[in-house]
Write a structure and sequence with these properties.
The structure is a homodimer of 146-residue chains. Chain A is an alpha+beta fold. Chain A has a single domain, classed as 2-Layer Sandwich (Alpha-D-Glucose-1,6-Bisphosphate, Chain A, domain 4). Chain A has three helices and seven strands; from the N terminus they run βααββββββα. At the A-B interface, strand 1, strand 7 and helix 3 of A face strand 1, strand 7 and helix 3 of B. Chains A, B: It comes from Streptomyces siamensis. Chains A, B: It holds the Pfam family AHSA1. Chains A, B: InterPro entries: ASHA1/2-like_C, START-like_dom_sf.
């Protein structure tokens, strides 16, 4: 098993970050504009991009503390993996500890997804700090795989 | 053992990317301006940032294909780890596969370094595509840990 791990700090409250992670409106402003579904615990959120997308079942949502999703549909390498966001406060920042856990193999697609998660987490940071993120299809292109 | 893995694609030649990875001038234009030392195989390159730095021994340098460093001084978590850049061509891009291998534990500092490597690899991409990167101390701040 291989995990993707990231850490950013944002000058916004944990409540604001939590809202960006647990509402369709918030999610559509930093990851992909094409976001639909039920963002409550037990619901499934459908994230779509030009080449495809991901369906995430919301397993946990603890206000201002923790969000956990399981990938229930999408690319084969993603199915069954989990995406966790943990929030804490430190030095006046809200720290987001991110994990995309349970990759079976460190395939080249995982390298790509790791770099791309960093880009989207910086979009989350920009959204909560300035009110405007860079969700797909306006996201920063990193390679031929977009 | 835990590894950091990234993938970017740049619209520049493998030779140009290789030069940015194997010359003091190139390295100082995307990772940190304070870069000194011997970038030849067997040499040690000293990268310095405001809070500290890293000494990298160059283990391999295959033109336009592969660069491998070993961390010989720096933060305790980094010592003994290896940093690899592999280059290949695909769809008109030079693809950079990056690995920072051999972390003993997935500590919070590793989360930070992973996100920060993405930022610096995007600086490498910007350098080889536009002639100007964002090396430290002009790098993008991602948190209270810089």
């Amino acid at each position: 098993m291989v995990d993707i791990l990231h850490r950013i700090g944002v000058t916004a409250s944990p409540d604001d970050v939590y809202a960006a992670l647990t509402t369709i409106d918030g999610l559509s402003k930093w990851w992909t504009e094409d976001t639909e579904g039920d963002s409550g615990v037990g619901g499934v959120i459908r994230f779509r991009f030009v080449p495809g997308g991901f369906d995430m079942k919301v397993l946990e949502a603890q206000p201002a503390e923790r969000v956990l999703w399981e990938v229930v549909d999408g690319p084969e390498e993603w199915i069954g993996t989990q995406v966790a966001f943990e929030l804490k406060q430190e030095d006046g920042f809200t720290i987001v500890l991110f994990r995309h856990e349970g990759w079976k193999e460190p395939v080249e697609f995982m390298y790509h997804c790791n770099t791309k998660w960093a880009i989207f987490l910086m979009s989350l940071k920009k959204l909560v700090e300035t009110g405007k993120g860079d969700p797909a299809p306006h996201d920063v292109m990193i390679s031929n795989w977009h």
